[in-house]
Amino acid sequence: MGQYLLRRLLISIPVLLGITIGTFGIINLAPGDPVAAMISPEAAASLGPDWVKQQREALGLNKPLPVRYALWLKEVAQGNLGFSLKDRQPINQKVLERIGPTLKLMSTALIISLVLAIPLGILSAIKQYSLIDYLATIAGFAAISIPSFFLGLAAIYVFSLKLGWLPSSGMNTVGGTASLLDSSKHLILPAVVLGLAEAAPLIRYTRSSMLEVIRQDYVNTARAKGLAERTVIWRHALRNALIPLITIVALNLPRLLGGAVIIEAIFAWPGMGTLAITAVQGRDYPVIMAINLITAVLILLSNLLADLCYAIVDPRIKYS
Amino acid sequence: MAESTQQSTPKTPSEAQQPPPQSGLAIGPATRSRRTSVWGRFRHHKVALIGLTILAILTIAALGASWIGQDPLKTNISAYRKPPSAAHILGTDSSGRDVFSRLIHAGRVSLSVGLVAVAIYTTIGVVLGALAGFYGGWVDSLIMRLADIVLAFPTLILIITIVSILGPSIYNVMLVIGLLGWPSIARIVRGLFLTLREREFILAGRTIGAPNSRLIFRHILPNALAPVIVAATFGMAGAILLEAGLSFLGLGVQPPTPSWGNMLTDAQSLTVLESMPWLWIPPGIAIALAVLAINFIGDGLRDALDPYLLR
Question: What DSSP state is assigned to residue A81?
Fold first, then answer.
């Protein structure tokens, strides 16, 4: 296990480096000179080309690309993501402000999707080819096929505009006192819409995993020794059927995050997604790259964590 | 565990379900009887047939858009956001353009973005997966680590980044989705190649001195195509959704060219959302129908090709 962990960490190093090279490469693909981006063309003209050259040297932009990559990597490794081109704010601070809301949205959505998907998946497996199995399959297909932004708009239309039950945007009522009730109300629509899209593949995986497990010998043994069907399913089969879900959830994280970007845009949720979109629209490349880097590293870490959980939960798995 | 599940090399290539081993070296592209039997099974998959019908209707509407509808770009200020009427069966948009005509023209754009993007990444995925699985060793490690890197980025965020650098346009969207989608296909193909390359018919091929390129493309690849076709079908559904999402955010197909995604952009305003449902419900339904139809077809293909899927 220790050896496996070590090997797994070692494999992550080239991937991590690859992520930083990719990130840095893309920054440098961006058109326009960073110095030119900092000042207006008129100012650049009046200050003269010498000044621009000086600034480039001061910023280290005249150094060859690999050297700049090394310098940048050193800063990133020390936790300095740089500064926004727009308002000169440190990116670390921006990201810290925004990551909380996104994690809140994503984790709530994930919980909703699990609460929906696991019982539905199990029901369709133990009642294979029944009406409920059929309905769950149809619902799953619908949930992966309806674009989340359309579902989000429809949810706002029905629940905010027509019924007036829930707010349509933001995390809290503007100007209102922040209360748990208020923020929960704001969370419901975006989290449910995001969770529904996420639940669809989970239903399918739970179902097929459960179908596989209930055909195992030990399940027959449990039945043979006279245990109630409920005990067989919930205590014996379920535990093993859920193991593969750890991986599925981990592998779906990038998708969930992508979904969060769109959901945040629709519900004006002040998270990483809206930060990314504002940065993209304002061509604020350092911010965009920081977001790419952070999300990629988070995903890499969560995959690693999922692998470890997997080994802990399932002692049958021997890593060599 | 990513190691064990994702790259799950097919465990039981159940021999019984394999196409009958024809005389030694001649195992090549699909034979006629195989093709008819796949269609035979597909035909009995009701859901898949429904999907095929819906997709056919959408495709015909998209192809015939110029004849069926009006000019999707013709603006008419006096017809600003008019509700559905006889002249405009789905009403008009904020520039007085006919929503129905835009909808069917958008179908062209959205369906072709899906098709081209998937064609690009399936090609890349098949080639890289084949190389990794056939040669193994450092080629395999290099390609698979590259796949890990691409998979570590949240696709949507990476795509909006690249699109923002290249500039949003229909071709850049096709290109970027195409360049980033390959890892899933490459993993499938690699897994199949790992088992197929050990089979007797490949050994036979080597024995008579067939070059690697012939072994890869004439002998192994045709046997690995079924899962690729299924994955590419589901991939097309995903690509259409992705394009719609990007265009919705204003980072994909640019107006005035209509795409199902950018037709919904207007609905981000609560006024439009609340009182002009004809502007946003039709394109939303169009996307859902197209994606659902393609997913249904994928499901049918998976069942129909089942004997050929080395799962």
Answer: -
Single-letter amino acid, residue A22: G
Q: Do B10 and B195 meet the contact criterion of CB atoms below 8 Å apart? A: yes
What tens digit of pLDDT does each residue of A159-202 get? Answer: 888 787 887 777 777 766 677 777 888 888 899 999 988 888 88
Query: Of A195, A200, A193, nearest to A168 (Cα)?
Result: A193
- For B256, phi then psi, to 5°, come to -80, -10
Arithmetic mean of pLDDT over chain B? 79
Cα→Cα distances B124→B8, B89, B118, B131, B185, Å = 20, 43, 10, 11, 8
Residues B108 and A70: their CA atoms lie apart, in Å, by: 46
Mean pLDDT across the stretch A27-47? 69
Q: How much is the pTM?
A: 0.82
CA distances from B140 to A21, A162, B179, B304 (A): 20, 56, 19, 31
Q: Which two tokens mark B226?
A: 């079924």
A1, A246, A308, A320, B251 from A4: Cα distances, Å: 5, 18, 9, 6, 42
By percentage, how much of chain A surpasses pLDDT 90? 6
Q: Compute the distance between CA of residue B286 and CA of residue A312 in angstroms, rounded to an integer.
A: 45
Q: Is A211 on the interface with B (CB under 8 A)?
A: no
Residue that has been written with the tokens 């493309």 in this structure: B217
Cβ neighbors of B309 (< 8 A, separation 6 or more) are: B226, B227, B230, B302
Give the integer Cα–Cα distance in Å for B72 and B102.
5
Among B146, B156, B264, the strongest candidate for a mutation testing the A interface, having the largest count of A CBs within 10 A, is B156
Q: Cα separation of A298 and A289, whole Å?
A: 14
Q: How far is A163 from chain B (nearest CA, A)?
A: 11
pLDDT at A211: 86
Per-position b or e across A186-203, b if 16+ CB within 10 A of its CB = bbbbbbbbbbbbbbbbbb
Mean pLDDT of B151-161: 83
Residue B8 has pLDDT above 70, yes or no: no
Pull the structure tokens for residue B225. Answer: 């195509």
The answer to whether the CB atoms of B1 and A310 lie below 8 A apart is yes
pLDDT tens-digit readout, A81-124 = 888 877 778 888 888 888 889 999 999 999 999 999 888 888 88
pLDDT at position B294 is: 92
Would you list the DSSP string of A184-219?
A: HHHHHHHHHHHHHHHHHHHHHHHHHHHHHHTTSHHH
- How many Å separate Cα B215 from the centre of its chain? 27
| Mean pLDDT across A226-251 | 83
Nearest CA in chain A to B143: A15
Between A and B, how many CB-CB pairs are < 8 A?
Answer: 158
Whether B145 and chain A come into contact, CB under 8 Å, resolves to: yes
Q: To the nearest whole angstrom, how far is the Cα of A142 from the nearest Cα of chain B?
A: 7
Percent of chain B with pLDDT over 90: 16
